[in-house]
């Protein structure tokens, strides 16, 4: 609403999983955004599972038509394809910026790990073979890396170097967190305003 009123060209982007399609709040906000013609992009990450249940058992109908029911146009894209997601998102963002109102982007993707940190034994709701297939044949980082190499934008050595640098930075951040003391009790209400 503020972006529309200020006319600053900003666009709000809301990310949610396919499990949110069973929650009324999502439909309430899409309805409002459509009525008020707000520059909002709704990005549904369809990773096939609503926590522990395949979405074929929890979602009736076609996901993309749900947004259309509110007059919100949308597009579906292979969420594992970095270029396709970028191109489609850019197109929808440009429409929203130009006064086209809210847009819906359905990204078909996959959750490689569990739904939460304790979800380590996923075999009771999906097979190891399924996970392995997605990791070996549909990993977006691998797919994009191969594209960069094929296009001669980067070579394997440079990509391996970037991967090593990122892994080192992550290890350093984790170690910093592990070594940090717990906050003092008098900080419990810091930055809490209500």
Give a written overview of the molecule:
Helices cover 45% and strands 14% of the residues. The protein is globular. The protein has helices at 2-6, 24-35, 63-68, 82-100, 128-137, 140-150, 156-179; strands at residues 12-17, 40-46, 49-50, 53-54, 74-78, 103-108. The protein has 194 residues and is of the alpha/beta class. The protein is built from 7 helices and 6 strands, in the order αβαβββαβαβααα. The strands form 2 sheets. A 4-stranded parallel sheet has the order 1-2-6-5. Strands 3-4 form a two-stranded antiparallel sheet. The longest helix has 24 residues, at 156-179. Helix 2 (24-35) links the parallel strand 1 (12-17) and strand 2 (40-46). The mean pLDDT is 93. It has 2 domains: 1-113 and 127-137, 3-Layer(aba) Sandwich (Rossmann fold); 139-179.
């Amino acid at each position: 609403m503020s972006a529309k009123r200020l006319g600053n060209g900003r666009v709000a982007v809301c990310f949610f999983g396919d499990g949110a399609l069973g929650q009324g709040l999502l439909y309430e906000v899409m309805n409002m955004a459509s009525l008020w013609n707000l520059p909002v992009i709704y990005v549904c990450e369809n990773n096939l599972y609503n926590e522990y249940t395949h979405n074929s058992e929890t979602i009736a109908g076609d996901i993309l038509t749900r947004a259309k029911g509110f007059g919100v146009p949308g597009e579906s894209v292979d969420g594992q394809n970095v270029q396709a997601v970028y191109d489609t998102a850019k197109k929808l963002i440009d429409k929203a910026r130009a006064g086209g109102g809210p847009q819906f982007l359905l990204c078909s993707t996959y959750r490689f790990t569990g739904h939460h940190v304790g979800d380590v034994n996923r075999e009771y709701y999906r097979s190891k073979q399924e996970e392995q297939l997605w990791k070996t044949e549909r990993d977006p980082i691998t797919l994009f890396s191969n594209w960069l190499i094929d296009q001669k934008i980067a070579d394997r050595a440079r990509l391996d170097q970037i991967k090593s640098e990122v892994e080192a930075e992550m290890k350093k951040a984790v170690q910093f967190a592990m070594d940090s003391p717990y906050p003092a009790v008098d900080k419990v209400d810091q930055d809490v305003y209500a």
